[in-house]
Amino acid sequence: MSFFGFDPSGPPSSGEKDQKLDTLDFEETYEGLGEQDEDAFNDETFGADVKEIGSNFDFTGGLKPASKPQTVNPNLSYAKAAQVDQVIAPMASLWNEEAKTADSASSQPASEQRVLSLEEIEAKLRQPQQQVPQMPQMNPYMYQQQQQLLVAAMASGQFPNPAAAAQALAQGYFPPFQPGVMPFMPFQAQQMMQQGALGQGQQPQQVQPPPAGLQVPQVPQVPQSAPAPVQQQQQQQQQQPALQAPQALQSPPVLNAASPPPHSSQPVPQAVEQKVPASASAPSSSATPAPQSVQQVGSSDATGNFPPLGYDEKPRKQRPQRQNPENLTQEEREKLWRRQNKVSAIIRCSGFMNPRDKDFVTRVQLSQIVTDDPYNEDFYCQVYRVLNSSVGEDDMSSIAQKYLDQSGHRLGGREKRADVALQRMQQQVSKAVTVAKERGERTGVLAKEGALGKVSVGSGKQPRKQLVINTTGSSDEVVVPKENVYSKSSRAFQLSVIEDIYSQVLKLESLERENQERDSKDLWNALRLNDTIETSSTVVSPFISVLSIDKAMKVFNRLFHFLNPEQKIKLMEAIFANLHNIDVVMKGSYANYVNENYEIPKTEKSKIELFQMTVMKTLVLFVSESDFQQVLRFVALIVKGGNNNVLFLSTTKIGLSLITILVSRLELIKQEFSAGLSPQDLAQWQTIYDHLFQALEGRLATIFPPYLSNDDARKVRNSESKSDDSYIWQFLASLSLAGLLSHQRIIVDEIRNEIFGSMGVSKALKESGDLQGAEKHLSNLNLFLNVMGLKASESDITEL
Amino acid sequence: MSSGSSSNLEDLYLQSYSFTTTAAIIGSVDRKVFVLLRDGRSVIGVLRTFDQFANLVIHDGVERIYLDGSRYGESTEPQIFLIRGENVVMMGELDIDKEDEPLEKLTRIDYGAAFGEWKKAQTEIVERHTIEDKQLRSRGHLTSFLTDEFY
Amino acid sequence: MLFFSFFKTLVDQEITVELKNDVEIKGTLKSIDQYLNLKLDNISANTTKYPHLIAVRNLFIRGSNIRYIHINPSLVDTNLLQDASRREAMASAGDKIGGK
Question: Does A651 touch chain B (CB under 8 A)?
Answer without folding.
Answer: no
